[in-house]
Structure formats: C-alpha cells, structure tokens
C-alpha cells in the first residue's frame, strides 16, 4: 500500500510522467507509417474502378449518340452503325432471367424464412444456393446449352435467359431470405392475431415489409446478369438483326447482347468495330452502375422505396384520371 | 378455404349470438404444456361479457400464456399442448373441427410491444376489414375505429403516414383501433401499457373504460394498481416451484374489490400487500 500524502506539497514532489507527444519515438513512428500505409492501400483499391471508368469515358464517349441505340451493328468495312439490337437483346434476356428467378427466389425464401427455417430440406437448399453463387458462369451456359439449345434445336433468347436465371436465383433467394428474417416477430404475431392464415401473413405483411431488401437483391442479381458473357456465348449466340426483324417478335432465334457484342467486336481488326466495342462497354457499365446505385439507395432507406412507390402510384393515378 | 367461411358482406365479422346465456369465455385449463414442460395447471376462469377481467401475478406465473391460449396464439408454438376446455360462448374452441385462424378473427388481441404494420395508418386499421372481405364503407369504419381508440383527432390529417412514424403510445392506440375495427366480441390485451409512459398509460386505461360497454376485455397486467383501476374481476396467478420447473396456476379469482380488500387466500394477501412480486 502506498502512503497517502498528508499535505499538498507532498503531491507536488512526485515527478510528472512524460506526456508530451514525440513523433520519433518508436511506437508512434510505427503507428504513423501504418496509418499512411492503410490510407494508401485504400486509395489503391479505388484505382481499378476509376481507371476503368475514365478509360471507358475517354474512348467510348466518342460514339455516344442516337445512332448506337437505333442502328444495327456494322459489317466489315461499313462506316457508322450501332448496337440497338444488342441493348434490346440484353434487356429481353435479363428480363426472362428475372421473370424466372424472382418468383422462384421469393417462394424459396418464403419457405426458408417463414415455414421451415430449420428443416433438413431448407439446410440443403441454403447449401445449394451458396454453392451456386460461386458457380463459374460458363457452367450455367453449358447447362442451358445441354438442356435448352440441344432440345429446341436453336440458339435463342430463352436459352440465354434460363442460363442467366440459374445465376440469379441464389442471389435473389438468399437476400430475400435475409430481408424476410429482418421483419420483426411481433409484426408477424400481430398478423396472426388478426386472423391471417400463414399464407396471408407472408403475402400481406412479411413480403411488403421486406420489399426494399428483396428489391435490392433482385437489382444486384439483374446487374450481375446484365454483364455476363460466358453463359450467353453458346446459348443466345449473337445476331446482327433485331429480334423483331421479321415484323413480329421471334424469340427462338440467335439473339444479340451487349456483352457478346463487346467480346466479338473487341477482337476485330477494324477501327469502327473496336470503337463501338468501347462505346458498348461504356453503356453496359453505366447500366450496371445505375442498377447498383438504385439498389443501394433502396436497401439503405426504406422511406426511399415507399416514396418511389407513392410516386409510381400517383403517376398511374394521373394517367387513369386523364383517360377517364 | 378458411376465410370463405367468414366472408360476409354485411358486417366486419358476422355477429355472434350473444343472446345465449353462456359467458363470453369459460377458460378451463387443466394442464398446458410446452413440450414436456408443464407451464400452467388448474386455471378455471370465467370472463363475463362486456366486463374487464384482469390477470395479475408475479412474472413467469403463466398469465400471458393463459391469455394467449384464449385466441389460440399458442398454437404457433410447435410443442404446445392443451388439456382442458376453452368455451367461447359455449363452443369449445379447442375442438377438433375448429379452425384457429377463424377463432382469432372473433377474439382480437393487443400485444405488449406496440406492433403496427409497416404501412399507412389507414391501411393498418383497414387491414382486418380487407382480410374479412368487408364490402361496406371501409373509410367510415376506419374513422369510427380510430375515434373509439381516441386517436382520430391526432392522425386525421396524416392517415397516409406510416404507422411506425407515430409515438409509442399512439402506436399502441393504433393497434387497439386495428383490433376493434372488425368488431371482435372479445379483446385480449397482453400487458398493453408496459412499454408506455404514464400519460399514454392513462389514456389507454380511459379507453378501456369506454370500450367496456361494447367489448369483452381480458387484460394481463404486471401492475396491480392498473388491475385495481380498470378490472371488474381479477384473477390472481402464482408460480408453483414445488415440482420440477415453474408451473403457473390460478390462486384466486373474484370481483376486483374482494381480491384487493378481502382476499381469501393467504398467498393473495401477501402479493397484494407487496410481500413478493
């Protein structure tokens, strides 16, 4: 036990500890160096994205204009041209993929989070989904080639869509499950207390409440699918014509997509095609970026989603009023 | 489908024949298990029509469990088993042919934590009406329910706002409005004020007094003073720790005045005078 100082003077006699800051002491030197190092590495991590963006804007923006959305891809020595059919094809195939994967993903998520969170089959489903998220995308293409292209006898938009759906299902399902698990237990109790059947609890309370999270998952899946090349290479192939070239929409034919167009044109020896490949890359990156930003915004702020819904409703309401 | 049985265009939920001489609820729980755990035993209570019946007792005595077995909310717990009878206007709601979903439409519930849905105030109150395919004027019913819950003046200009944007006390009144919008004949309240401040609590207690004329109310409360203020009859539960586990049981049941002024059981006397809680 230390003696308790009896007078104020005794306290003052104790020497003051060294408290001044010194940059050249060993530990503060190491601290400073590591601080700067982490900061530098954080900056380095941003370089790939920004360099890609800057490169694309520099080389791709030259050809931005109406033509690229309305014209067909040029042939070997043609001047000008665009890739309207590829943009349309990407939208069609990602749309088919979303149409297939969103219902499957949401139904599966409902089962996993609400009806049977802890059964053998749900553990198996979760394991499969997690494995599928790491599936090399070319294997999805192989699967669709074997199961759709060989059977229908033609490369087609649905074959591409199915390959993309295969990659989208796990993302949609796992994020939707997480979102539905976030819905508070007491809210579900309230719904049961009102006399909802389990199905009504899910459809009227759980899914609407989890909607922002579900939309985030869908957007992420769509953004990923839009950029995929490998699954489309031997399912949708490519086409130099519009899907509705013959006057009506015929999906059972080879279909163009942005990613395959980039793949094809970037390897060609013609200046015009290479320029278009750059522009197509810019359009694709912009598309994916916009989807990502929307999904972030929705995921972070519930009110945002609610407001968007209200805006949509208002617009629809106005249109109705105008019609009447 | 279950809900087709209930879809009725004339009223929110078809009116119950209250002309028969049965009391609203006759709860005759002999044994109530969660898995192998005996949670409640020997609790026979009669909840009279258009009165408030209070359930009091120390924590863990099973009063909430008893309340939740009245509208079969316990069925949501897989291992739940019930031995006894629970008569709702003379009809055993634990009979084999009874659909628990239908039971919950006649016996509304207000929970401990305010739990409005994440939708507009209007949609929250209209929820039950739409669920029952109510064909009448929903807006009118919503206004009526909100007025009865004492919330109309505060929210009438912001019916489109999310229910979760209200304060705790307002949320709880919104939940009450949601529960009474379909005009269930019995309203169960599971510690409705425990998450609220004293002012919000007073408003809800006054509300209960007003609702009494029209609804049968059973309320679980941890607060003896609250039971004294609102309840016509009071049931006192306690915990039996003599055997393995903690089993709740009914100690005494009678008019509130008698329970608080002249309790027959020694245990009740001790609890009322604050010797344990």
Short structural description:
The complex is a heterodimer of chains A (324) and B (277). Helices cover 73% and strands 0% of the residues of chain A.
Describe this structure in words.
The complex is a heterodimer of chains A (324) and B (277). Chain A has one domain: MetI-like fold (Orthogonal Bundle). Helices cover 73% and strands 0% of the residues of chain A. Chain A has helices at residues 8-13, 26-60, 66-70, 84-115, 120-133, 137-152, 157-181, 185-193, 198-227, 230-233, 258-266, 271-300, 302-323. In chain A, helix 9 runs antiparallel to helix 12, helix 11 (258-266) packs antiparallel against helix 12 (271-300) and helix 12 packs across helix 13. The radius of gyration of chain A is 28 Å and the shape is flat. The mean pLDDT of chain A is 87. Chain B is α/β, with parallel strands linked by helices and 277 residues long. Chain B has a single domain, classed as Rossmann fold (3-Layer(aba) Sandwich), CATH 3.40.50. Chain B is 34% helix and 25% strand. Chain B has a ten-stranded mixed sheet, with helices on both faces. In chain B, helix 4 packs across helix 5 and helix 4 (121-131) runs parallel beside helix 7. The model of chain B is unreliable at 1-11 (pLDDT under 50). The A-B interface holds A 184, 186-187, 189-197, 200, 204-205, 208-209, 302, 306 and B 2-3, 6, 71, 73, 76, 101-105, 108-109, 111, 113, 115-119, 127-128, 131-132, 162, 175, 178-179, 182.
CATH level 1 name of chain B:
Alpha Beta
Q: What fraction, in percent, of the residue positions of chain B are helical?
A: 25-40%
Largest interface: A-B, 19 and 29 residues
Helix and strand element order of chain B: HEEEHEEHEHHHHEHEHEEHH
Uncertain segments of chain B of ≥5 residues (pLDDT<50)? 1-11
Which features would summarize this protein structure in a list?
heterodimer; A: 324 residues; mainly alpha; MetI-like fold; 13 helices; 73% helix; 0% strand; flat; B: 277 residues; alpha/beta; Rossmann fold; ten-stranded mixed sheet; 11 helices; globular; disordered N terminus
């Amino acid at each position: 036990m230390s003696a308790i100082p009896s007078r104020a003077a005794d306290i003052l006699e104790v020497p003051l500890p060294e408290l001044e800051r010194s940059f050249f002491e060993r530990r503060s030197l190491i601290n400073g160096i590591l601080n700067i190092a982490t900061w530098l590495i954080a900056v380095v991590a941003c370089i790939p994205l920004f360099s890609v963006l800057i490169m694309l804007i520099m080389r791709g923006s030259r050809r931005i204009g109406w033509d690229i959305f309305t014209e067909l891809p040029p042939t070997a020595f043609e001047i000008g041209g665009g890739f309207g059919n590829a943009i349309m094809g990407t939208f069609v195939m990602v749309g088919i993929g979303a149409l297939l994967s969103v219902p499957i993903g949401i139904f599966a998520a409902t089962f996993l989070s609400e009806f049977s969170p802890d059964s053998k089959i749900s553990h198996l489903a979760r394991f499969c989904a997690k494995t599928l998220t790491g599936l090399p995308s070319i294997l999805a293409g192989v699967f669709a080639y074997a199961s759709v292209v060989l059977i229908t006898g033609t490369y087609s938009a649905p074959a591409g869509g199915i390959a993309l759906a295969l990659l989208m299902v796990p993302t949609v399902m796992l994020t939707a499950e997480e979102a539905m698990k976030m819905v508070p237990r007491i809210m579900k109790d309230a719904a049961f207390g009102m006399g909802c059947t389990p199905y009504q609890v899910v459809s009227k309370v759980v899914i609407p409440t989890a909607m922002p999270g579900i939309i985030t998952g869908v957007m992420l899946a769509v953004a990923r699918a839009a950029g995929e090349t490998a699954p489309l290479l031997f399912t949708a192939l490519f086409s130099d014509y519009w899907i509705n070239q013959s006057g009506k929409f015929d999906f059972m034919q080879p279909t163009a997509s942005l990613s395959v167009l980039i793949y094809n044109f970037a390897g060609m020896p013609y200046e015009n095609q290479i320029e278009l490949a750059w522009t197509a890359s810019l359009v694709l990156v912009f598309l994916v970026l916009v989807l990502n930003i929307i999904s972030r915004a929705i995921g972070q702020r519930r009110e945002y989603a609610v407001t968007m819904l209200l805006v949509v409703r208002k617009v629809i309401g106005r249109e109705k009023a105008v019609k009447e | 489908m279950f809900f087709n049985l209930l879809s009725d265009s004339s009223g929110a939920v078809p009116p119950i024949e209250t002309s028969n001489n049965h009391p609203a609820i006759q709860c005759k729980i002999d044994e109530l298990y969660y898995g192998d755990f005996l949670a409640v035993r020997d609790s026979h209570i009669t909840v009279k029509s258009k009165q408030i019946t209070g359930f009091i007792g120390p924590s863990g005595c099973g009063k909430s469990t008893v309340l939740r077995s009245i509208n079969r909310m316990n069925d949501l717990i897989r291992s739940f088993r019930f031995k006894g009878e629970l008569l709702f206007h003379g009809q055993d709601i634990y009979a084999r042919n009874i659909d628990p979903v239908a039971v919950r439409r006649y016996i509304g519930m207000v929970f401990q934590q305010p739990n409005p849905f994440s939708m507009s105030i209007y949609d929250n109150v209209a929820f039950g009406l739409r669920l029952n395919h109510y064909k009448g004027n929903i807006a009118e019913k919503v206004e009526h329910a909100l007025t009865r819950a004492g919330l109309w003046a505060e929210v009438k200009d912001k019916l489109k706002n999310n229910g979760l944007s209200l304060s705790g006390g307002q949320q709880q009144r919104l939940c009450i409005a949601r529960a009474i919008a379909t005009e269930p004949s019995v309203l169960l309240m599971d510690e409705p004020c425990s998450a609220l401040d004293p002012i919000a609590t007073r408003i809800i207690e006054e509300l209960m007094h007003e609702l009494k004329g029209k609804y049968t109310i059973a309320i679980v409360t941890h607060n003896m003073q609250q039971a004294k203020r609102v309840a016509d009859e009071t049931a006192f539960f306690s915990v039996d720790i003599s055997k393995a586990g903690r089993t709740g049981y009914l100690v005494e049941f009678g008019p509130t005045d008698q329970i608080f002024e002249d309790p027959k059981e020694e245990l009740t006397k001790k609890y009322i005078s604050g010797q344990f809680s």
